[in-house]
Design goal:
The complex is a heterodimer of chains A (about 290) and B (about 220).
Chain A: H1 3-9, E1 13-17, H2 27-36, E2 42-45, H3 57-66, E3 71-75, H4 82-94, E4 99-102, H5 124-135, E5 152-156, H6 163-178, E6 183-188, H7 192-202, E7 209-214, H8 219-228, H9 236-244, H10 248-263, E8 269-273, H11 281-287
Parallel strand pairs in A: 1-2, 1-8, 2-3, 3-4, 4-5, 5-6, 6-7, 7-8
Helix pairs in contact in A: 4-5, 8-9, 9-10, 10-11
Chain B: E1 2-6, H1 9-16, E2 21-27, H2 30-33, H3 39-55, E3 61-67, H4 73-76, H5 80-83, E4 88-91, H6 95-104, E5 110-112, E6 114-124, E7 127-132, H7 148-151, H8 178-188
Parallel strand pairs in B: 2-3, 2-4, 4-5
Antiparallel strand pairs in B: 1-6, 6-7
Classes of the chains: A alpha/beta (about 290), B alpha/beta (about 220).
The complex binds iron/sulfur cluster (2 copies).
Chain lengths: ~290, ~220
Amino acid sequence: MNFQKKFASGEFVFLAEMNTPKGVDISEMITNARRIKDRIDGVIIPDMDNGVMRMSALGGAVLMRQQGIETIIHVYGRDRNKMAIQGDILAAHVLGIQGILVVRGEEMASGDHTDARVVDDLDEEGILRAIASLQKGIDLAGFELKGTPKFVTGCTLGPYKDDDGLERVITAAAKKVEAGAGFIVTPPVFDIDRFSILMERLKPLNIPVIPTIFLLKTVGIARYMATYEPGVFISEQTIKRIRQAPDRELECIKIAGETIHALRGIAQGVRIVTLGWEHRLPTILEYAGI
Amino acid sequence: MITAERKPLEEIIEYVRPFGKILLVGCNECVTVCSAGGRKEVGLLSSALQMAFMKEGKMLEIKEMTLERQCDPEYVEELSGHINQVDAVLSMACGCGVQEIAQRYREKPVFPAVNTKFMGASERQGVWSERCQGCGNCLLGLTGGICPVARCSKRLLNGPCGGSTKGKCEINPEIDCAWQLIWDRLKALGQEERYSDIIPAKDWRPSRDGGPRKIIREDLAS
Ligand code: SF4
Ligand code: SF4
């Protein structure tokens, strides 16, 4: 399947996040990818997600390409300057990577190498503009490229806590679209009604909206997100549902699956985030009816 | 001291062009010492602006003031009696001073008239050079009192790179090779053996990499 074509034709796109290993043992990553290969349209490979040092997204994406899976890599400015970012983007194209999702890197302080130096040469808009420029055959210093890369490029809608915050992240998103983003990934969605309202708000951006499906895993995580990420709206009812379930893990998987199912026809796809539970992706897809 | 250089006049003109009356505020501390934004420079900039606008047939009224320290709320308060009589403030202090004014007088536009450069020292009359990057965890005790973070072009903690010629840096012959200075200094101190000590990879948390910084002294904080 081809997520690029689906984006263009307005079909629903299934994307799953696949984390690279912390180390060089890639067996688990490959096994998990093979299991879902024919049921999704592509994988998204985060780069040092949550500030945790691990194999780079570029490496992970190449592994996925070797499995015949279409890939989107995360690119952000915390660890690389404009030289390294552009170099990796050129490499990504040559290595067969079709998509780039420009994200905001987690603070160094919340990762596992808190003493590392922060680069922050380009912010999200800066990276989007760099990609746009490279696609036109010109680098950020104005020099001509020999052969131009091509990508489906996306951005994220930042997290928000209230209406004011939403206003700000939508304004920021509009800037990113102007800078070249062709699709947008939202924060985790648990409440379909609220998401429908958000969809309305995002309509003026005029690009495919891809909500994030976040696998909760435990009551603790659900409670934490409900408290600290009020923008995602996890209801008490959802938390209760997980708590009272005989198999809580499975219940979380069911919730993720049902949310995906409900979003068909509303959004233009989903990004499924399991944070290390990629082995549960097949079951999530089952409950989503895929 | 914090060093600064005045911005090009054309840039400053564009900032103040929309206004009829401005307050031009200098600072008596670092920017006075490095001749960028003290009382004297306030006077010079004021005349230059007035002349430039006069040529265009426009009047710009400028009230000149120079505060003891623009990064100190106590002194910035002194502007309170004048701020309402002007349309905007043009500050000749470092970025800290400009922001202090922006914070205190929220409804008044404030513009910088200087580019804040670095923490440095005076080499000789009219020459200042960078000495410190405020990394938050000073290494000078290991490097003979010469800072490799601020003064080595490649920020080598275990230098030299081998490229220096006649004591000058290979990247920029205008500046001294920091590692030559470190070596000379260790030798002068009779501490040559220190040179072979490996300085471990730096922990950048105490630096700006750990986020915007703040010092809270419980014994002094009110
Ligand atoms: S080691 Fe750090 S604190 Fe010390 S002089 Fe150099 S930059 Fe400044
Ligand atoms: S010549 Fe000296 S100051 Fe310049 S980069 Fe090399 S070691 Fe650093």
